[in-house]
Design a protein that fits this description.
Radius of gyration: 23 Å
CATH architecture: 6 Propeller
Number of helices: 3
CATH superfamily: TolB, C-terminal domain
Oligomer: single chain
CATH class: Mainly Beta
Largest sheet: 4 strands, antiparallel
Structural class: mainly beta
Amino acid sequence: METYLNFLLLVVSICTRSVASFELDPTWPDTAVKEMKVYGTGIVLNSEGNLIVIHRSGIMQPGAPVNQTIQEDVVLVVDSVTGKILQTWGKNLFHWPHGIAFKYDPITKVWNDSAILTIGERFISGSDTTHFCTPSDIALVPGSGDFYVADGYCNSRIVTFDKNGNYLFEFSAGSADTPNPIPFNITHSVALAPSSNSTEYLVFVADRDNSRVQVFNPTGSFLYELNSQQFGAAGMPMMFAVTHAPHAGDKFGRIYVTYGLNQNANFAEVDIINGENSKVGKSYAIVPDGEIGDWYEAAHDIAVAKDGNTVFVAVSRADRLILRKYKRNMGGGSGRRMGGSVLILLLTFVLVKWN
């Protein structure tokens, strides 16, 4: 009698549980965006929840000139609901844009096509405190205005600066198993997330060609890493992008990671357990945009809405702009609730019958 009762109650619990997943919104973005012949590389959400996109115009096309300033706007502001272009800017500023971050300035409020701070020299690479070698991403420290730069393709380091651009420190790859860690192999993306210590934060680095995400404290001390096996990925897929977003019920929010190319491109949710551990959750396939042919598609960057229920992915492809929008589907609709009620009523009937 007791065993039978427990079994039925377990069935009720399982059948009434909601399972969340992400579903692609095929209607987004607007056709005018889909038809742009540009190479998208970076995305971020602004304070209004709209998507800021940075691209390389048509310089990735065969025969296009290189090492020249792009003379057209390379930044788009795309409505996160309608998918229409709201604004463009950024002409005559960049020659090989890659990543982008956003901080709202209530005083400025509008883009003005001019830089307020520049670090490094155009076309002059270096590994000192004032030069980079193909930097790829930037992460802003909330409150202080300090920032971390993923530098990048040649130097493979993380460099930190204060809000005025003064060099603070830098760090390289870490390891818990060996005194000689495997060096970074393209620090492609960097993101910050809350830590179990309320006064600090975690630094997540997507180490692209080593197929891993490494995690550090604010001063660059290594904590742990997430490898491709933990993401359930076969082989050594490139880890392209990492970002953070709050999530209801999760004290530290979640990390979102993109990895892989073409038919093997995915994004994944990662639960931050505490300052010493994270757990990789479910991965979602990013289906190629038609025939691949001679092109390749990389899950190059990711942005997540403040509620954690909408994910945007920039897929880099040389012949056109590809932006994806995924909405969280919580499941557990009325059908599932009714199913649970039926089981509970059945359980009551059996118990009465048995007695």
